[in-house]
Write a structure and sequence with these properties.
The structure is a single chain. The protein has 154 residues and is α+β, with helices and mostly antiparallel strands. The chain contains 6 helices and 7 strands. The strands form 2 sheets. Strands 1-2-3-4 form a 4-stranded antiparallel sheet, with helices on both faces. It has a 3-stranded antiparallel sheet with strand order 5-7-6. The structure holds coenzyme A. The site of coenzyme A (COA) has 21 residues, from helix 1, strand 4, helix 5 and helix 6.
Length: 154
Amino acid sequence: MQFTRAVPDDAAELTRIAHAAKRHWGYPEEWIARWAPALTVTPEFIRTNPTVVARMETEPVGFAALTGLGRQLRLEHLWVLPAFMGRGIGRALFQEIALVGRAAGWSSVQVISDPHAEGFYLRLGARRVGEQISDPEGHGRTLPVLLVNLRPAG
Ligand SMILES: CC(C)(COP(=O)(O)OP(=O)(O)OC[C@H]1O[C@@H](n2cnc3c(N)ncnc32)[C@H](O)[C@@H]1OP(=O)(O)O)[C@@H](O)C(=O)NCCC(=O)NCCS
């Protein structure tokens, strides 16, 4: 597996990966449609935010991106194509994007996690620091707010 910095031309492919990964949790299509803005990566986003792509023989299989470098560093995206989940790619992507965050001087990163992904972040050493209510339309979803250390373990 290879990690490369995304280029603006990757935007459509990364958007496809984010949608496929989110669908993996079995959400209704109307929810996926409502979340489209959060699942869409634009060329402009890639130009302005550090975005790392995991590739298998040049084929993108996942990506991660950081935002808010000015105030609070946040992991805005971390998605792995369903066919490639469970092989350590999510962890490896996190480690790659952590290098970028550390190089910018940060020691931790905030994640507003999908509830299904919280266990993954806890495996990476995250701690829960709060909750955020999502879906004001009335589905009553509560998202864990996590903080993950960027320093290498050990
Ligand atoms: C969450 C996600 C990024 C994990 O990627 P992955 O490549 O499958 O994860 P890895 O194989 O690197 O797993 C690393 C460790 O976390 C564990 N893990 C992975 N997903 C987990 C989950 N959903 N719940 C609990 N533990 C999980 C693995 O068992 C592994 O444990 P280990 O340390 O004992 O080996 C991926 O499942 C995904 O893209 N999910 C859908 C989209 C999503 O919700 N992304 C997060 C947005 S906040």
